[in-house]
UniProtKB/TrEMBL annotation:
PROSITE patterns: HTH_LYSR. InterPro entries: HTH-type_LysR_regulators, LysR_HTH_N, LysR_subst-bd, WH-like_DNA-bd_sf, WH_DNA-bd_sf. Residues 7-64 form the HTH lysR-type domain. Coiled coil: none annotated. It comes from Alkalibacterium iburiense. Belongs to the LysR transcriptional regulatory family. Keywords: DNA-binding, Transcription, Transcription regulation. It holds the Pfam family HTH_1. This is LysR family transcriptional regulator. The keyword DNA-binding applies.
Amino acid sequence: MNGVVKIDIKQLKYFIEIANTRNMSQAARNLFVTQPTLSFTIKKLEAELNTELFDTHDKTFRLTRSGKLLYKKGGEIVKEFDELVNKIQKMKSDSKETIRLGLTILFAVQYMQQISNFIATHQNVELVIIQNGSRKIQAMLAENELDIGLVSFPNTQSQCLTIEPLNTSTKGYNVHVVLPENNPLSNKKELRFEDLKGQRFSTLSEHFMLGQMLFERSRHLGFEPDIAMVHDDLQVLLYSLQKLDSICLLPIEYKQIGALDGLKWVPLKDKHDYFPIGIALKRGTTPTKAVNDLMREIKKN
């Protein structure tokens, strides 16, 4: 036999399956190929090696001496090849960059299109999204538990974080007082913080800017807020208002997502009635190309 022998892994796998099953029809079913395709492949392999691999006189596909040798050595080659492919695929998986993005529930909804666009165009990046309040997200960034945050001001970790204000269609959120329609304050066109004295509150925790703001502003004005519930799920807070006869402070922008019947959203007139938002990073870190791409996508909002 002259020339270079050309055998590929697929031919070896087909040959080994026939040797294992000793049945051409069963082997074809196991390999999800047609019987003629399998038969042609084996004939081509035998022609390439210039030898018969199976003794088919009794239709049992017994291996010849050459077939036994190819079965033994070919099986080793196939095993090594599969292990090599697995290692290469694992290396590719291991090299996948992970970005940990922190943001609030509201921002997750407002920027979902941009986030989806980034995921669709960066298949080599695993984007892990952590939802929490802006104060908590800033703290997590400071502790290197996140890589980037979409947060509201103020910067509570100014010694170690930078926050770039967003100059997009969504630049921040406006604070409203949400209360049951039977609450006398629901008839007001706007409410000042002083008007809320004596009310019961369902509130976000101090992980959120609004949760912290409630306590700071109340105490600054000389009263301790009467807390009926603390919860970090905005929808849970809304459901609690009528049952607990309470009020809460929420972004009006959330009304489009979680509006409920029987509630009024009244603008809050206060020095803290608006919170701008921005992209937060830890000082001294150099964003990767993927993180820069994510920031550019967010800025398209």
